[in-house]
Write a structure and sequence with these properties.
Blueprint (H helix, E strand, L loop, with lengths): L7 E8 L2 E8 L5 H6 L5 E11 L6 E11 L5 E4 L2 H4 L12 E10 L2 E10 L15 E11 L6 E10 L5 E4 L3
Antiparallel strand pairs: 1-2, 1-5, 2-3, 3-4, 5-9, 6-7, 6-10, 7-8, 8-9
Amino acid sequence: MERRQRNNIVADFFAHGYRVSGSFDARQHSLGDAMYDNTTSYLAIENAYVSSIRQAGEITANHPMAVIVKDSLTFTLTMDVNDTLRRDQKYGSYLGLQMVPIFLTLPFFDLRGFLRLPGRLDPRVLLSSSTERYLTLVDVTAHVTFEPDLSFQGAAALVNKSQISFLGLQSL
C-alpha cells in the first residue's frame, strides 16, 4: 500500500522568544529532509503567523511568505512524527528503535519527550560526535521557562543541537 505524502505540513517554529506558525510545502521533500539538508541554511514557509511566546495567542504579524534561518531556530514542533523524519529515518533497522525518555533545556524552554535511537547507539555521543544539526524527539511537551503555566505540545520536534544547554536522560 502506498502512503501519500501531504502537500503542506503545518508546524510551529520557535526562535529568540518568538513562535512562527506556518505551512511548509512538502511536495518536493519532507520537513525533516529540508531541516537536515546541509546544502541550504534557509527554510521557506507560507502563511506565517508571528507571536511572542509570552503572549502566544496574540498574533503580532502575518505574512504570506517567510524565510527562516535554520541555524537561528531553537526547535520546530509538528503534529505528525512522519513530518520530522528524514527519508532514512522512516525505515526500520536490524536492531530496532529505542525510545529513551529525555529532558533538555533550551533558551526560553525546557522540553520533555522521547529520543528515537536506532539500535545500540549510545545517547551520550549524540551532542559530541554526530554531525547532524538536529535531534528528533517524539511525544514532546515544551514548557516556557518564565511562564510555568504556558506549554506547547506536539507529536514530534526537531531540536537545534547548538541551542541545547542541558540534556538529561532517564535511562541508557
